[in-house]
Amino acid sequence: MTASWIVVIIGAAVSCLGWYLSPHAWGYGLFGFGLAHIVLGMMDMFRFASDEEPQSE
C-alpha cells in the first residue's frame, strides 16, 4: 500500500511540473505521464490483494 502512495505522489509532482511547462510538447508529455501514474497508483490501491490475505477454507 505504501508503494501505491509513492507512485501517486510522484505522479502528482510530475503532473505539476508538466502543468508548469504546458505550452511546450515536453509539458504535455510530462502532464500525461504524471496523470497515468496517479491513475495506476490509485488502481493499485483498490485492487484485491490475493497474495496478502490467504483465504481459509
Protein model, in words:
By secondary structure, the chain is mainly α. The protein has one domain (2-46). The protein is built from two helices and no strands. It has helices at residues 2-20, 25-46. α1 packs antiparallel against α2 (25-46). The two termini are 26 Å apart.
Structural class: mainly alpha
Instruction: Please report which band the strand proportion falls in: under 5%, 5-15%, 15-25%, 25-35%, 35-45% or over 45%.
Output: under 5%
Distance between the termini: 26 Å
Strand/helix succession: HH
Q: Based on CA inertia axes, which overall geometry fits? A: elongated
SS elements, strand count:
0
**Largest sheet at a glance?**
none
Query: How many distinct helices?
Result: 2
Q: Which regions have little confidence, pLDDT < 50, spanning 5+ residues?
A: none
Q: Into which percent range does the helicity of residues fall? A: over 70%
Give the overall average pLDDT: 86
Structural domain count: 1
What integer value in Å does the Rg equal?
Answer: 15 Å
Q: Which helices and strands occur, and which strands form pairs?
A:
Elements: H1 2-20, H2 25-46
Helix pairs in contact: 1-2
How would you briefly describe this protein structure?
The protein has helices at 2-20, 25-46.
Question: Which terms summarize this structure?
Answer:
2 helices; single chain; 0% strand; mainly alpha; elongated; 57 residues
